[in-house]
Design brief:
alpha+beta; 29% helix; 21% strand; four-stranded antiparallel β-sheet; 2 domains; globular; disordered C terminus; 7 strands
């Protein structure tokens, strides 16, 4: 069952017409694009895919919702350059380098039995472009029950890149950086 979920999503990726995906995400007329629907999948299917090392397309370029998997962006150099710039800026903004804040990359935390189901549904297996958490042993940092320091992410960063938002600004690139702060009240 586990392998069949991953295999089914991988097969859908391998059958793609990439020109069609590109035109859906970034229409040639400059109009707003839309996520490309890849295939149907349950939440369990999607969770298995995210945890798999055998992904035909990295899960961070996709999203799950309404029992469907969507491709939401392409792995382009502009996106990756923005991820690197955001990472460097966040570390520099602390004023202490990595003394207080540790990088965890595009890692996810998985389900935590100590968190309510509605919180797990929002953040479990969320694979951001970058994530950060307090350095182990940071004075004042309290590790929530059920977490280890490498899974304690207090800041997750997702970079969104869109180009050609309508004919009036067709030549401009619109860059949006979205930072999602994980502010979870965990009972002690």
């Amino acid at each position: 069952m586990r392998n069949s979920s991953v295999r089914r999503i991988n097969n859908a990726v391998r059958r793609l017409d990439w020109a069609l995906v590109e035109s859906e995400l970034n229409p040639p007329d400059g109009s707003d694009g839309a996520p490309f629907e890849l295939c149907a999948a349950t939440r369990d299917d999607w969770d298995r895919y995210i945890q798999s090392e055998q992904q035909a397309l990295r899960s961070r370029w996709m999203a799950w919702g309404d029992d469907r998997v969507f491709i939401v962006e392409f792995p382009e150099s502009l996106h990756e350059n923005l991820v690197v710039a955001a990472r460097k800026s966040i570390i520099a903004a602390t004023g202490t380098g990595s003394t207080h804040l540790e990088e965890h990359g595009a890692s996810y935390i998985g389900n935590r039995v100590t968190l309510p189901d509605d919180i797990n549904a929002l953040i479990a297996f969320l694979e951001p472009d970058e994530s950060f958490g307090p350095v182990r042993g940071l004075p004042g940092a309290v590790l929530p029950p059920g977490f280890c320091w490498s899974k304690f992410h207090t800041l997750k960063v997702e970079i969104g890149v869109s180009q050609g938002w309508g004919p009036a600004i067709q030549q401009q690139q619109q860059l949006f950086v979205s930072i999602m702060l994980s502010d979870i009240n965990v009972p002690h």
